[in-house]
Amino acid sequence: MRSGTIPKDKAPPFGEIYEEFRTSMRGHAVGAIVTFTGTVREDAKEHGAGATTTRQILIEAIEGVSSEHLQRIAAEAAARPGIEKVTIVHLTGTFEIGEPMVHVLVGASHRDEGFKAIEDVVTRYKKETPLWKKEIYTDGTSRWITH
Amino acid sequence: MTALLFGEACDLAGTRSIELHLPDGTRTVHGLLQALHEAAGARLHGKVLASSEAGGLVLAPGYTFMVNKRILAPREAEDIVLEDGGEVGILPPFSGG
């Protein structure tokens, strides 16, 4: 699967994304596949006079533009020594607690390169890709998150 | 000219896009911000729009423009002449999942 954003209801399950990624690298010098999945965390928040907890997360992207940014980050990461392939799949829409919002997969020669690359890729996509995240709370309020 | 609003900016304005008339000679991001302020300033000021030290209008910290699908920091967009009838995105600070 190509890097990019995809509406939640059109996204294949992670198992399919992983198998396609893994089998696409058969015969290559890959000794480690490192993956990251970002999920919705149930977070307690101080909010005005009282406390509330996260109920849902909304993720918004710009069609085409956000995908291009993810593809560029993945391509640059895959050009590093010891990295064979990188895929970033960011889902969009409204997510419940525990649901996956993003998957990053890195195929590397060795685990050290893989762990380092995935850390850098996650840091980069959060900072550089036009994506926005809104926390929706159990008390009915909401807040756009800035990292 | 159409201003496209994303994330928090869309919520605050209550709409995804705002049609703006920019007369000849004002088709810059400064002209766009002035027109946006006149159209929806009460909802956007202090969050999306801010006053500069010189008294003009600027984007709030962390916000960027999108012109022809290119994302530009406010300083990078300063000298661009915007196309009549084009679209300019107003992008809040990014926050992927």
Please explain how this structure is put together:
The complex is a heterodimer of chains A (about 150) and B (about 100). Chain A is an alpha+beta fold. Chain A has one domain (about 5-145): Molybdopterin biosynthesis MoaE subunit (Aldehyde Oxidoreductase, domain 3, Alpha-Beta Complex), CATH 3.90.1170. In chain A, about 30% of the residues lie in helices and about 40% in strands. Chain A contains 3 helices and 8 strands. Chain A starts with a strand and ends with a strand. The mean pLDDT of chain A is about 95. Chain B is α+β, with helices and mostly antiparallel strands and about 100 residues long. In chain B, about 30% of the residues lie in helices and about 25% in strands. Chain B has 3 helices and 7 strands. Chain B has helices at about 5-15, 30-45, 75; strands at about 1-5, 15-20, 50, 55-60, 65, 70, 85-90. In chain B, a hairpin with a 2-residue loop joins strand 5 and strand 6 (about 70). Chain B is globular and about 40 Å long. The relative contact order of chain B is 0.25. At the A-B interface, strand 4, strand 5, helix 3 and strand 7 of A face helix 1 of B.
CATH architecture of chain A: Alpha-Beta Complex
**Uncertain parts of chain A:** none
Low-pLDDT stretches of chain B: none
Count of DSSP helices of chain A?
Answer: 3
User: Under the CATH scheme, which class of chain A?
Assistant: Alpha Beta
Task: Give the fraction of residues assigned to helices of chain A.
Answer: 25-40%
Give the helices and strands of chain A as they follow along the chain: EHEEEHEEHEE
| Shape annotation of chain A | elongated
Task: Kindly report the greatest chain-chain contact and the residue count on each side.
Answer: A-B, 27 and 16 residues
Strand order across the largest sheet of chain B: 2-1-7-5-6
How many angstroms separate the termini of chain B? 31 Å
CATH topology type of chain A: Aldehyde Oxidoreductase, domain 3
CATH-derived architecture of chain B:
Roll
Counting structural domains of chain A, the number is: 1
